[in-house]
Structure formats: C-alpha cells, structure tokens
Amino acid sequence: VRLRMLPERRHSNLLDAVHGGITLSLIDVSLFACMRHAIDGDAAGSVTLDLSTQFIGAGIIGKPLDAVVEVLRETRRLLFLRGTAVQDDHLVAAFNGTVRKPSAR
User: Fold this and answer.
1) For residue 41, pLDDT beyond 80
2) Residue 39: which residues within 8 A CB-CB, separation 6 or more?
C-alpha cells in the first residue's frame, strides 16, 4: 500500500524539514490503510501494538511524502508490517509495526 501526503510549512520543524511527528503520523495511518486492504474491511477497533521507526533523512516541505507498506505475516489476530517513508528516491524513514486486527462485532 502507498499512502501520500503533501507536507506544508505548518508540518515543518525548526530546521524547515518535515517534523518527525508528522512522519510518524503518516506511518501509523499507513499501517491501518494496509490492514484495511489486507483484511478487505473495516479497521475500526484495531490498534497499533508496536511501531519501530528509524529516521534516515530529512523530509522536504512541499514535496510529496509517501509511506509504502507491505504485510510480512498475517495471523488470526495480528498483522506484521514493514515499510519506508520516501520522497521520490530519497529515503526519509524505515519502519516495522504490529497491528491487532479488529475484534468481531
């Protein structure tokens, strides 16, 4: 799954780069977008259990920032995911996450 945002000046840090918290928010939302695609349904009631992020480069304001996510493994209750946050060929961050699927209603 690829999820895109366009960072604006309001998403910057004191160094005029994309704030790390914004990048983390995009990454977290991308985990759920990937899960919705994988389970072909609603993600309501699911939670992030684990998220490990390695910041590798600064994000550039005004340039599309993509989170690219893949499923490593799926069990009955969990999805294990990994991905990158990129701007074209520029690597901003790498991440691994575990998401608990929603409970049956």
Assistant:
1) no
2) 79, 101
